[in-house]
Amino acid sequence: MTAVTAQRPRQPSRFMAIISKAREANIVVLSVISLLIAGAFGAVLIILTTPSLLTSWESFFSHPGATIASSAKLVWWAYESLFQGAVVSFHDLSTWIGNPTKANLATVLGPLSSTLTYASPLIVAGLGLSVGFRGSLFDIGGQGQVIAGAGAALIVGFSLHTSPLLQVPLEMVVAMLVGALLAGACGALKAYTGAHEVITTMMSSRIILALLPWFLGLGFIARAGFHDGASKTVNPEGQLPLLLGHISPSLTLNLGFPIAIATVFLVQWFFNRSKTGFRIFMVGQSREAARTAGINIKQVTILTLALAGALLGMAGMLELTGIEQFMSTNFGGSYGIDAIAVALVGRNKPWGVFAAAVFFGMMQQGGQIMEATTGISQSLAIVIQAVVAFCIATPFFVCDIFKLRGGERLAALETSAGWA
Amino acid sequence: MKLELRGITKRFGDLVANNNINLVVEPGQIHCLLGENGAGKSTLMNVLYGLLTPDSGEILINDEPITISDPKDAVAHGIGMVHQHFMLIPVFTAAENVILGSEPVRPWPLLDHRAAKKTVGELSERYGFDVDADAVIEDLPIGAQQRVEILKALSHEAEILVLDEPTAVLTPQETDALIEVLQELKAQGKSIIFISHKLREVLALADVITVIRLGEVVGSTTPAQATTTSLASMMVGRDVNLVVDKAPAKPGEVVLKVDDLFVEDDRGLTTVKGVSLEVRAGEVLAIAGVQGNGQTELIEALTGMRRATSGRVAVGGVDTTKRSVRGILDAGVGHVPEDRQEHGLIPSFSIADNLVLDQIDDPKFAGRFGRKLKAIRENGEHLRTQFDVRSPSVDTPVGSLSGGNQQKVVMARELSRDLKVLICAQPTRGLDVGSIEFMHRQIIENRDRGVAVVVVSSELDEVIALGDRVAVMYDGVIQGIVDPSTSREEFGMMMAGARSEEEMA
User: CA of A286: which chain B residue's CA is closest?
Assistant: First the structure.
């Protein structure tokens, strides 16, 4: 039996103080560490899946230097092309500086433009999920709301020939309305019958997905001469204008991005300042205390899901009118599911959601370029994305490995995300 | 087994929760730790149980210094803890809960239920506990759940049992039963640390009483040398007034009128059976009675949390029977709910936000551009000072405050509105003497300001101290409304179902 050692406070050195500060877990430290873990994990995968490298490791003991060098070289190349494909290519940048033509500028801006284009609807969809989480409601059926919203916007988009100033807002309003109705109905089911929103939103999404081929086959929706389930195209008046079109029409960045940023600000305000946002948070944190304080729980439950659905519908509209311009049976990819990960990685903070969506966009775009240049499958980017999401969603895991303090606090944030 | 804590100091930031605390518990001794909420009793026990690491100091068992870095160590050293909030799994049986964490498995990996039941049965018998090993926890009354919790500690061969505010959740009868159990354990040589702020039971139970105030030991005494008054002034550092100092009420017109109210509980049983009441401005109507006689449902019906099946409630002449909670709050009803953690507060929210929880729409706190965060903060600062809520700042989450300070937040919020009626359910449950005194003074001040006050309490002392008139409720019926000077025997009989003599006459 030993004595409880009296822990006298030692005078910490300056260096130790910095280390100690860095070990205080916060979201920045956590994100950096998550990226490093994901990077290391990805590196191992690259080596394991590249036969020539694996062969070189067999002779590791005779040429250790060369083995490590060749592996490091390929890993570096992969990550370099991933980054350059997602943000900016240094080679193109120097070409443009040497010869500043419009065409070269377009090449420089291309990767970032694609990344942000992809991210825009995802930002809005992630915000939608975070509104639900704020009220401890899990809208797992975002995919259905994305498609339903886009479908409504599509009808407005191809049937009207008005001014973009009228048509784009109109598309947005109908998309949000349809998304809100769909999710709000699930909210009403929860409020009045107690049906769990995870089940109802998931099933409503299933129904929408099942109805999509039928919808696309309707006489007034289907594009003439096509039999593969493609819809008519949104009229030019209903398309989101390109932001960098004057540089090159190949730069796809469109009005959807500023709209997404505006939505971030709006949701930020909604969470921090609005009365309704406060009510939603109250109900999310304690239904009973909210009820005692005179909050109408049913109303707030419906409203929360309706708002989430509105944002997901809007995401569908942004995807349709900013990127695809028509609908097919695989419209929207996996936005509805990715939005869940985005909201969690962004820890329900509007700017966190923004950062997470942009990161997902980077992986998506960078992965394609990486595959094209290095031959390494773009699935690697998905793996990195998933590992980062995993690390950020389980702060205890990371804090434990790296001996960070304050994991409880980060985990507490997680519970306020509302996995009820 | 002898336990000694030597020079324990524990800081949280700038706050010194425990400052150089020394404590010796002899074998077979019941040692009561007495102190206000937030005095540092629970911190000290969490240090002992390995949940917190002390900044300095040491723990000795039988004069041997030991290291306790987590609860497992504590259990291994024979320290057992019964928490205020039970750590039991509601859907498991008593036996299953007791063996949890050290399950007998035979043949591996199957649970040996029979061995488990046998252990529980033997322990139960040895210490004279009345615990059915097969009973599911959620079906058991609170007192029995607590005995299971104690059994669990004993099953790990605890020699020192720490009970954190064990009587806070018990009825008087259950408290008596607990005291008997503890005496039996003592007789068998166990040491007991009993944390409480209830003077009377401490005097009834303790061998030694150690009083802690603001993280420091104020002194030790024995029941023979101490009185409730001397203990109370040791706890709060000044002389306290256990009797509420109040002028006679000057009742005005009837503000709250309840007519032949019937209310059903969640199970659909009628628990309020034709209650009629009138409460006048400037008076306190106290409702006494053993818990579970319809008081909870009555309050819920008055505050809109539950629909009455029939009857009528009027506030200031306005019918509020069918109004929503919001509508009733707006009619000028303040509500201090029975369970502050569950109903009164949102623990994760800041003090400032909790102080405006039911005033979101008030133009003072919200304008066209959303909630006025500055005004909400200022309101928080103001009420925090006025109600002496002890906390680092108004941004502190309410959940981290002690019970007394939490209740002050609830009270401050309700009283900051313009009230006609104030309804307080168990306003001082689990609070220390200083906070109780403070709450009582607030209630009386508001009475004198012309508010009609209803206080529901299962503590007879409180009912007698606060009430200008006392209604006794039994089985959903008001047995009678009597003067607070009525004898305790009379109250006791009414609470057990006898009609009051005044009523009969």
Answer: B346
- Alpha helices (H) in B361-486, listed in sequence order: 373-386, 403-415, 433-448, 460-466
Q: Is residue A128 in a domain?
A: yes
Q: In which residue ranges of chain B is CATH 3.40.50.300 found?
A: 3-236, 241-332+418-505
Question: Rounded distance, CA A371 to CA B325, Å?
Answer: 61
In this prediction, residue A4 carries a pLDDT of: 43
* Closest of B440, B497, B457, B498 to residue B288, by C-alpha: B457
* pLDDT per residue as tens digits for the range A183-224: 999 999 999 999 999 999 999 999 999 999 999 988 888 888
pLDDT digits (tens, 9 = 90+) for A376-396: 888 989 899 999 988 887 877
Judged by CB atoms closer than 8 Å, whether chains meet at B370 and A2 is answered as: no
Closest chain A residue by Cα to residue B67: A4
Residue given tokens 């009118």 in the structure block: A321
**Is A149 part of any domain?**
yes
Distance CA B288, CA B458 (A): 6
Parallel, antiparallel, or unpaired: how do β-strands B79-82 and B160-164 relate?
Answer: parallel
**Candidate CATH numbers 3.30.450.150, 3.20.20.70, 3.40.50.2300, 3.40.50.300; the one for domain B3-236:** 3.40.50.300
Number of domains in chain A: 1
How would you label A303-325 residue by residue, b for 16+ Cβ within 10 Å and e otherwise? Answer: bbbbbbbbbbbbbbbbbbbbbbb
Q: What is the pLDDT of residue A6?
A: 43
Q: Is A359 a member of any domain? A: no
* A414 within domain boundaries: no
Q: Domain span at residue A228? A: 120-344
Cβ neighbors of B223 (< 8 A, separation 6 or more) are B202, B203, B204, B206, B209
Instruction: Say if residue B84 is exposed, middle or buried (CB neighbours under 10 Å; 0-12, 13-18, 19+).
Output: middle
Write the single-letter amino acid at B299. I
Judged on CB neighbours under 10 Å (0-12, 13-18, 19+), A73 is exposed
- Interchain proximity B67–A4, CB inside 8 Å: yes
Which residues from A are below 8 Å from B64, CB to CB? 1
Q: Per the CB < 8 Å rule, is A285 touching B324? A: no
**Set of chain B residues whose Cβ sits within 8 Å of the Cβ of A2:** 65-67
Q: With 60 as the cut, is the pLDDT of residue B502 above it?
A: no
Is the predicted pLDDT of residue A12 greater than 70, yes or no?
A: no
Confidence bin at A411 (pLDDT 50/70/90): low
pLDDT at position B435: 85
Convert the pLDDT of each residue in A332-343 to its tens digit. Answer: 888 888 999 999
Greatest Cα pair distance, chain A, in angstroms, is 86
Q: Residues near B65 by Cβ (< 8 Å), separated by ≥ 6? A: A1, A2, A3, A4, B58, B59
Sign of the Cα torsion B426, B429, B431, B433 reads: positive
**How far is Cα A133 from Cα A201, in angstroms, rounded to an integer?**
14
Mean pLDDT for A325-333 is 89
CATH superfamily of B241-332+418-505: P-loop containing nucleotide triphosphate hydrolases (3.40.50.300)
- CB neighbour class for A102 (10 Å; exposed up to 12, middle 13-18, buried from 19): exposed
pTM of the model: 0.78
Angle, alpha carbons A87-A109-A167 (nearest 5°): 110
| Strands lying side by side in the sheet with B308-315 | B270-280, B254-264, B308-315, B318-319
Among B173-187, B206-220, B484-498, name the one with the lowest average pLDDT. B484-498
Does the pLDDT at position B362 exceed 50?
yes
> Residue B350: its chain A contacts at CB < 8 A?
none
d(CA A71, CA A384): 18
Q: Is B347's CB within 8 Å of A286's CB? A: yes
pLDDT of residue A109: 92
The minimum CA-CA distance between A257 and chain B, rounded to whole Å, is 25
